[in-house]
Fold FAD-binding oxidoreductase.
Amino acid sequence: MSVSPSLSASLIERFAAIVGTGNALTEPSDTQGFTQEHRDLYHASTPLVLRPGTTQEVAKILKLATETGTAIIPQGGNTGLTGGQVPLADGPPAIILSLTRMNRILDIDAVGGTMTVEAGVVLQTIQEAAEKVGKLFPLSLGAEGSCQIGGNLSTNAGGTAVLAYGNTRQLCLGLEVVLPTGEVWTALRKLKKDNTGYDLRDLFIGAEGTLGVITAAVLKLFPMPAGRQVAIAGMKSPEGALELFRRAEALAGGGLTAFELMARIGVEFTARHIDGVRDPFAEPHGWYALIEISSNLSEEAARDQMEHLLSAALEDGIAEDAVLAQNETQARDFWHMREALSWAQKPEGGSIKHDISVPVAAIPTFLAQAEPLVQEVVPGARIVAFGHLGDGNIHYNISQPVGADREAFLAHWDAVSAKVHALALSFGGSISAEHGIGQMKRDELAAIRAPIEIDLMQRIKAAFDPAGIMNPGKVLRTR
Amino acid sequence: MSVSPSLSASLIERFAAIVGTGNALTEPSDTQGFTQEHRDLYHASTPLVLRPGTTQEVAKILKLATETGTAIIPQGGNTGLTGGQVPLADGPPAIILSLTRMNRILDIDAVGGTMTVEAGVVLQTIQEAAEKVGKLFPLSLGAEGSCQIGGNLSTNAGGTAVLAYGNTRQLCLGLEVVLPTGEVWTALRKLKKDNTGYDLRDLFIGAEGTLGVITAAVLKLFPMPAGRQVAIAGMKSPEGALELFRRAEALAGGGLTAFELMARIGVEFTARHIDGVRDPFAEPHGWYALIEISSNLSEEAARDQMEHLLSAALEDGIAEDAVLAQNETQARDFWHMREALSWAQKPEGGSIKHDISVPVAAIPTFLAQAEPLVQEVVPGARIVAFGHLGDGNIHYNISQPVGADREAFLAHWDAVSAKVHALALSFGGSISAEHGIGQMKRDELAAIRAPIEIDLMQRIKAAFDPAGIMNPGKVLRTR
């Protein structure tokens, strides 16, 4: 590691000169918004936040960083959940490079189905811009109002539309990346097929800013479905939800645009704490599925499929109850409940959160086996499991026992995680399905993977970032 | 480059001992089937063909190769079109590592939708095994009866189903790879989502055997559509075909499982030379589209969509004529015509072939502008353009003028290619949409890409294969 132990005033000045002093923040009151993240898990400061306005400024910053061995942390909307975008408490002083000012939509090609954007464009802005030209940009997640596409790409973000459209990696055709040396790789390509050498694009996507800074991207746009139907079904068990998912997939194929699972307690939490959410049924059910079916043909075609699915599921006793959103407002309300699940845990005290995936068919068994493991560590812990059943991806979140001490509960995080992750791995699963590694899961990743896999990643890291300046200590240990 | 200038008898013996002498071929009469490829463009011999039966044998071979600086060329079904799988005429002596004996299907999980296979399984065998459990493995291409999945993965093969299902990269969940050092990276994962570190899988996919040897893979299986309809439409122009494609896509969405374009002359060639193919219409048309629509619901639903598409296209004057396959036999005949196009060029003399892609909307303009450029170099050349219009990928093939000398015509390959590729690039296109780089396009790739891009690839190559033994001189120049 050649990262310098401290950042001198003169070095800060040289960096600041690149972006102009107005875009170089050093006061703790100014930088705090960039170092604090939503979960309040990481607490470290930065001597400098830089807010470049152009790719050329980013290039100059990285060139100077490599020359001086200065650590750089790229940051988008600061919504990451594994601490990838904030400083390490035990790391070298690191500059936060905020892409927020690079927020231009450079091109929309409705005919070709592409949008070219700078890294700092907020996801919701992209969704809305696509809609304006009658297209769909399907990436959708809770933080869409503030997360930025550069961060989505760097973490290969998932969300609720992965089932039909894939994760962020599948939604990207081309990239512009500034390398640690300050060189710019411009590959803003719009091609569906291009087999010309190594897949550099997919290497930068999901690298969490450790190999370079994504400054722009070409995104895929999709036809806006002609019709969309949203429903909620109540079931006794995850087995029922899995069977309903299989039927929905067989019926709607690629038209099944979401299939989300929610435990009863999550529905209770949202009804209790979130404005505008109410229990969708008179009677409680053990588990709930939010189902979205889209059709390229018509609203009626989507409704026909949904009604067929639900009435058969009720008849066959797979679902105990089901309700189809009667209009767009109700559909939004259903989605609001699902999206608010994580927030609804806050008023209930501390939460220990997981982002595991297993093969889809293993989800019921995983859920059945995980709960006693957790209860063994924290008796009375409340399992608020929910997530993307169709992707095999469950946010296995755990709220503290009623009345317990928050900090004492959170002190069990590692012990609980160890059990939950070991169980997921026993199914051939993942410890991070969509949130990435960041600083939170770095050492765990190294522990669960064969040395050769970590070594290959380290070789790539060393080849792309020999000075070790790019988000050091994230994903991989510095060496 | 540390590759040794010659292969001694004792070294050949050491390699042969790993697989057993019966699986080590040295006689030219035995090795010739591995060095000659379909297009007969490359002519170089090998001192040794090794046919390992296990991953462990592959590992031992690569370890010894790295220790002794011996070049290794991995080979599947030897159907590659850019010379990636055969020796370089000006390269070091290189061992061909044939994966043919590693042809076991290791696991089929119909419920989870995965199949785990060794690299040497023939594509058609995989398709048939999927079908037996009621599933679809969609990868489909002309060579499917002999190409192997390891080669498909290493070249990120495309084919006719990319439109709906993606190329080989999108069809793979996990890999087992033997590294040049002999270490084995085992990542036969079955997860839909897994954000844990750099995307090594997609780096090996499409690397054409230059970073390691893919020995096994987990493939995605899809629901078998309930119904499938195939039709051929005749049109005046590529513009008409593009408009028909847009309508088909809007109507069928992900159910549009193929949209292939064919120039009139290609239809003539197949009717003339291929058994069982006849002109689908009484009158000739300038261009033809083969359209396939699949439905998860029923045969009727697919037929309804196809009939709706075709009748509207006829009414609106977009198609001049159209015919829907009346049964499975006729559907297969239509596909046979499309798949035989490349072969039907053989009896017409020499052909210069291209595999370009451009943004879909640019295809008519590309076709209009390319022809005069070709005619300028070779007056009377016959343009047999066809391919995956929906992917923006055209096989811009050129048959020699009637009565011309084959060799004299082929001598124009580079001059013609330079013009065709420059035109594709002017649309932001690719010089190799699905066939890869191999030896054929290596220097051209280096010439058209920014130095930083080639340099990044070289850094990866050096990091993974420091001894430079893996398929040296393919994709990238050795350095």
Chain B touches chain A through 81 residues (CB under 8 Å). Residues 105-223 of chain B form a domain with the Uridine Diphospho-n-acetylenolpyruvylglucosamine Reductase; domain 3 fold (CATH 3.30.465.10). Residues 1-5 of chain B have pLDDT under 50 and may be disordered.
